[in-house]
C-alpha cells in the first residue's frame, strides 16, 4: 500500500493526539487516586477540572486578569485542582511531588505575567487554584484577623469594616487582588505612608512546604517567615492563610481627585509633586494617574494628570496640610469628600459614587484586558524637559497609563532588610507603566515594542545599580529561569532589581527549605544547586 505524505502526517497527528490525551487522562487519574490516599478528608470529584470539563475554561479564566495569557497559543494546564481545605492542599503537594507533576499556584490571578496559571518553560503542568479557600476571621479585641489565601483584599476590607468602623488594613488599591499572592510581593496601598505595606503588618502565617508539611510561623522558623513576606509568590511554599495586624483608622477620612491637563500647567505641577510627595504628612497619600485624553480641539489629544488621594482625617485638617506643604495643588473644600474608610476603598478603586460596600464581595473583576507593564523607583525628581519628552511618547501610543505612587513616611522608617521588599528610605516614588490593547495578538507586538522603548528612554532618570522594580509588577523582560537549570548569576540580574541585597538571603532560604526546586516558575527564587 502506498501512502501519500499528507496521509502519513495525518496518521502521525492522530497517533500524537491519542498519546497526548492518554497522558493527560493518566496524569489526572493518578493524581486523583493519590489525593484520595493522602488526604485526611475526602475530596469531591468536582474539585478537579480537566480539558474535557464543561467548566474548565470558565475556571481557568475566572481570576486571570491579563488576557495575553489566555490566548489560544498560550500553554494550558492538564487540569485545575481547586482544594476545599488545607489538607487538600497538603495532599496535592505530596502527590505532585510523588508523581513528578509541575504545579503552578494561583490565589488572585492578578499576576502580571501569568506565571501562576501558565508555564511557558515546562510542560505538562497543573494549576492549584486556591479560590475556594476564602475564610476570614476578624478579632477586633486583638486587632487581628486570619485570612485564607483565596480571599480577595476587598473581601478582607469588607469583613473588617463589618466588625468595626475604626479598623482597617494597609494593603492593595485594587479590590479583587487575592491576598495569598498579594502579600508575598509586599502589598502596597493608600495607607502605606502611615502604616507600611501589607507584608509589614503580618504577624503569622500557615503554609504547605515542599515536603507537604503544614507549618505556622513557629514551625517554619523566622528565616522562612521573613522570605514569604515580600520575596515573591511561588518560590517557598503555598500560602494557606495570613494572620494580619489591623490598624486604627479615623471614623472620618477624606478623599479627592484633582485633574490638570498640559494646558493647565500639568507638567510644572507634577514636577512640584515630585519634590514634596514623600515629605507630606504621613496621613496623606497622593498618587498621580497620568494618561492621554481628548483635548479641547477635535482630534487632538493632551495629557491629563489626576491627583487621587486619601487623607486619614477631616477635610478641614487636610486643607491645612495641603495649604502648608503643597499649595500649588490649589485644593479647595469643594474638591474634598468626607467619608468612611470602607467607602474610601471604593473611591480609590474607582467605583461609581453610589456603589455600596457589598460590591467588595464580588471576587472576580470584569475589567480585563491585554496589557504589558513595567515599573521603576525614583530617587531624584525628573526634570520638566524630560517629562515633556515622556508626554510626546505617550501621545504616540493608543492606551498608555502611568501611575506614580508616593513613598516616605513609614516607608522610610522600616529597614531595607526587615522584609525582602527593599524599596524604602531614599525612594521618592514608584512608577508603574502600562499599555493596554483590545484586539488580542493582532497588535500585541506593536504595543510591547512601545513600552520597551519607553522603558529604555526612562533609564537615566530612575534608580540605578540596580535599576529597581516591583516584584508584584512582574516583568519577564528582566530575565527568566530555564527548565531544570537556573544560574544564580543570571537570576541575580532580575533578583537584584526586585530585592536588592535581600536576593542573597532569599537564595539561602530557598536552598534550605526547597533544595530540589519543587516550587518554581519563570522568576522564582532558585536554590544554589538545582537537580534536574
Kindly state the number of beta strands: 18
Number of helices: 16
Query: Which word captures the global form?
Result: globular
Strand content: 15-25%
How many strands, what sense, and barrel or not for the largest sheet?
A: 7 strands, antiparallel
Oligomer: single chain
Protein name: FAD-binding PCMH-type domain-containing protein
Signal peptide: 1-24
Cofactor: FAD
Domain FAD-binding PCMH-type: 73-249
Structural description of this entry:
The chain is α+β, with helices and mostly antiparallel strands and 532 residues long. It contains 16 helices and 18 strands. The protein has helices at 5-38, 56-61, 86-99, 153-163, 179-184, 192-195, 217-220, 222-228, 266-276, 315-325, 341-348, 384-394, 410-413, 444-458, 488-499, 502-513, and strands at 48-50, 79-81, 102-106, 125-129, 136-139, 144-148, 167-168, 202-208, 214-215, 238-245, 247-248, 253-261, 284-294, 301-311, 337-339, 370-378, 400-406, 429-437. Helix 1 (5-38) crosses helix 3 (86-99) and helix 15 packs across helix 16. Residues 1-22 have low confidence and may be disordered.
